[in-house]
């Protein structure tokens, strides 16, 4: 069995239909990342992440997000960079296992089937689901069960998005997308508190690092996680571990 841990960076909304442009203050891109981890590795990963946090004087029961400020946790910049390097090392233990969808919202909202933030999120999710299925096929694990784990938004204001996402996932697994069906994906996703999920915390880093490369044009950390991105047989990540839409 495999778990696919999912997290995001940027906002799926923030588009002004009247000007056909992303609103001021909203991100130009929305990024969704998934990391594919064998179920047998989950306990080992939890222990490794706990040790990494202890080594950097961070609380083991709190998520230290990619975009977190180190002053929030009372550590210095050197410790902050060292922790980030440790997270990248954990990610890179999973070769061909990271899949990231980057949505260019200025262009995406011009599509007649993308009208709101939910449509953007669903488009990104389907792009990841299709590539997870392809990777399962490539590994000759055709009947291997796959469970999707999402970062829960934890509050009533955003819980509606969780519900919408769950329905979209169920619809995709039941009917498939235009390109693919998902016969061994779990019937429903699981929403978890990222503070207690090592896998979601790795997905947060994958999403945040990739989003920074596109939104800010800074790719130094993205280069460091490339070993973990899904690749073609010739080593190409474009369209395989990295899908930019449209």
Please characterize this protein's 3D structure.
The chain is of the alpha/beta class and 246 residues long. The chain has one domain (2-245): Nucleotidyltransferase, domain 5. 40% of the residues lie in helices and 17% in strands. The protein contains 7 helices and 8 strands; from the N terminus they run ββββααβααβαβααβ. It is globular and about 50 Å long. The mean pLDDT is 93.
Biggest sheet statistics: 6 strands, mixed
- Mean pLDDT across every amino acid position: 93
What is the terminal separation in angstroms?
Answer: 32 Å
Helix content: 40-55%
Quick recap:
By secondary structure, this protein is an alpha/beta fold. The chain contains 7 helices and 8 strands; from the N terminus they run E-E-E-E-H-H-E-H-H-E-H-E-H-H-E. The protein has one domain (2-245): Nucleotidyltransferase, domain 5 (2-Layer Sandwich), CATH 3.30.420.
List the helices and strands and how they pair.
Blueprint lengths: L1 E8 L5 E2 L4 E2 L6 E10 L3 H14 L21 H15 L6 E7 H4 L8 H22 L7 E6 L4 H20 L14 E3 L5 H18 L4 H6 L16 E4 L1
Parallel strand pairs: 1-6, 5-8, 6-7
Antiparallel strand pairs: 1-4, 2-3, 4-5
Helix pairs in contact: 1-2, 4-5
């Amino acid at each position: 069995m495999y778990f696919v841990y999912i997290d995001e960076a940027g906002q799926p909304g923030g588009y002004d239909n009247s000007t056909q442009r992303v609103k001021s203050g909203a991100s130009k891109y929305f990024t969704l990342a998934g990391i594919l981890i064998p179920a047998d590795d989950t306990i080992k990963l939890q222990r490794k992440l706990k040790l990494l946090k202890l080594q950097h004087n961070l609380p083991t029961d709190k998520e230290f997000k990619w975009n977190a400020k180190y002053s929030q946790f009372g550590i210095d910049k050197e410790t902050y960079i060292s922790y980030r390097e440790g997270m990248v090392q954990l990610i890179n233990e999973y070769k061909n296992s990271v899949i990231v969808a980057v949505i260019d919202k200025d262009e995406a909202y011009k599509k007649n089937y993308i009208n709101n933030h939910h449509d953007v999120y669903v488009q990104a999710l389907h792009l990841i689901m299709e590539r997870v299925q392809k990777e399962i096929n490539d590994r000759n694990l055709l009947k291997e069960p796959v469970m999707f784990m999402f970062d829960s938004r934890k509050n009533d204001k955003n819980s509606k998005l969780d519900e919408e996402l769950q329905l979209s996932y169920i619809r995709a697994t039941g009917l498939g997308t235009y390109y693919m069906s998902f016969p061994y994906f779990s019937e429903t996703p699981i929403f978890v508190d990222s503070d207690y999920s090592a896998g979601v915390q790795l997905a947060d880093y994958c999403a945040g690092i990739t989003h920074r490369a596109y939104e800010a044009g800074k790719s130094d950390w993205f280069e460091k996680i490339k070993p973990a991105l899904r690749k073609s047989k010739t080593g190409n990540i474009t369209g395989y571990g990295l899908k930019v839409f449209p």
